[in-house]
């Protein structure tokens, strides 16, 4: 083992290609999961911000309709020939500026909707790639561990078992004879 600042450093499993494949598969699984989770969280924060902006636009639109209500009624009354107060026929400057600001926000909201559509396509593409990486990593890991056990570890286990059986056979001593005689 390498020693670096008094800490054992991990070494790559170079003793067996199968073990290396298995660990590489596990790393691919971890990488795909981390990439998927990070991209999902950024996508969700982006959609949350866009949804909040669109909700604000909707609320402003409702309040603007409430402010416009007397002017809309006055315009309908004029069309029907009912006399109307002259002040209601002319829109105040504050409402005009609010309408212009709301039109600008709606245009930005449409851009947000388009951006969210693009972000959703990218998010789905990344999730598909992460899914394939996960499946490839799982298959690589399963194949690596299986081949490692079947072609290497099984024989090492048999050797270890044989060694332990040889070591467990103790020579016949005088103490064991006395115990058996009693």
Number of H- or I-type helical stretches:
3
| Mean pLDDT over the residues | 78
Query: Widest sheet: strand order?
Result: 1-2
Radius of gyration: 38 Å
Q: Please, how many domains?
A: 1
Net shape: rod-shaped
Order of helices and strands: EEHHH
Low-confidence spans = none
Bin the helical content. Answer: over 70%
Number of strand segments: 2
Question: Percent of residues in beta strands?
Answer: under 5%
How would you sum up the major sheet? 2 strands, antiparallel
Structural class: mainly alpha
The end-to-end distance, rounded to whole angstroms, is 53 Å
Would you kindly provide a written description of the structure presented here, covering whatever features stand out?
- With 182 residues, the chain is mostly helical.
- The chain has one domain.
- The protein is built from 3 helices and 2 strands, in the order ββααα.
- Strands 1-2 form a two-stranded antiparallel sheet.
- A hairpin with a 2-residue loop joins strand 1 and strand 2.
- It is rod-shaped.
Give a short overview.
With 182 residues, the protein is mainly α.
What attributes does this structure have?
single chain, 182 residues, mainly alpha, two-stranded antiparallel ribbon, 3 helices, 81% helix, 3% strand, rod-shaped
Question: What topology emerges from the helices and strands here?
Answer:
Layout: E1 2-4, E2 7-9, H1 17-80, H2 93-168, H3 174-181
Helix pairs in contact: 1-2
């Amino acid at each position: 083992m390498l020693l670096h600042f008094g800490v054992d450093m991990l070494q790559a499993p170079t003793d067996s290609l199968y073990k290396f494949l298995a660990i590489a598969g596990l790393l691919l699984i971890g990488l795909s999961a981390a990439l998927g989770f990070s991209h999902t969280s950024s996508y969700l924060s982006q959609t949350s911000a866009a949804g909040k902006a669109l909700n604000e636009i909707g609320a402003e639109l409702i309040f603007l309709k409430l402010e416009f209500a007397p002017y809309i009624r006055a315009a309908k009354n004029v069309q029907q020939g009912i006399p109307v107060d002259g002040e209601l026929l002319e829109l105040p400057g504050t409402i005009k500026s609010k309408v212009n600001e709301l039109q600008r926000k709606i245009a930005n909201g449409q851009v947000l909707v388009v951006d969210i559509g693009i972000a959703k396509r990218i998010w789905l593409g990344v999730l598909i790639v992460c899914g394939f990486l996960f499946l490839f990593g799982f298959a690589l890991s399963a194949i690596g561990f299986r081949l490692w056990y079947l072609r290497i570890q099984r024989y090492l286990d048999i050797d270890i078992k044989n060694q332990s059986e040889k070591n467990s056979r103790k020579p016949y001593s005088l103490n064991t004879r006395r115990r058996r005689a009693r």
